[in-house]
Amino acid sequence: MKPRVLRYESLPSTNTEVARLASEGAEEGLAVVADEQTAGRGRLQRAWSSPKGAGLYFSTLLRPKLAPDRWPLITFVAALATGDALLEAASVQTDIKWPNDLLANERKICGILAEAIETPTGRAVVLGIGINLTNQAFPDELVNIATSIAHESGRPAEREAILTALLHALARWCSLLQEPDGAEKIAAAWSSRSSYATGKLVQVTNGAETLQGQTRGIENDGALRLETAQGIQLIRAGDVTSVRPATMNV
Ligand code: BTN
Fold first, then answer.
1. Ligand 1 touching residue 182 (CB < 6 A)
2. How far apart are the CA of 60 and the centre of ligand 1, in A?
3. Helix (H) or strand (E) holding 73
4. Which residues make beta-bridge pairs with 97?
5. What gap in Å lies between CA 48 and CA 19, rounded to an integer?
């Protein structure tokens, strides 16, 4: 993957811009960074607050040569790469909440949005990563569930150093994903870095349905195994929150 980084002062959404460039034939590795987003998007149709200079708003184009059942692992690759970059460039240690939220001290510091798109040269993925550089990145009312690089490290966040580390780390993890045993290695690395992988009491909300149970690892395609009162269920989409044991049904 050869990175080519385009920089903008302001965009509606870096994911939307990469999708637009992909539809015009952009190559794998194209990356877009904006100082602010006016219509930043998150998972599950949520908005992603993106004020000027408060976050790293980054998207890149991937054209993976992968079996369809491996595509969900792209978000795991993004979480692993971003975790590497935050440790290397900001000395911030992170945990991963399934599928791909990065947490520091149990608060969200980074969100990842991977969107599959059709382009004239084939199916592609727009991988969007939003990293909170300062606490101004998110609304005040989220201060108990969100955090930032500056807050966690106690020093100003160096956006360029984080971006450089992220580009290198993404290249490393993406090339592992293409290897024959890449899926197993990525699932194992994800599990070793996530306190949510196994033995965590969680609630999973997916649309109208809410399940509670204990996590029992992940499948090689990224699905979360959840042990509920009805047995093991495979979770492929939804919002996971950790639950205190006293409130559990199982
Ligand atoms: C989440 O809901 O946790 C995912 C948030 C992803 C935000 C990033 S910021 C850069 C890119 N552009 C967007 O509009 N969204 C992603």
1. no
2. 12
3. helix 73-90
4. 101
5. 17
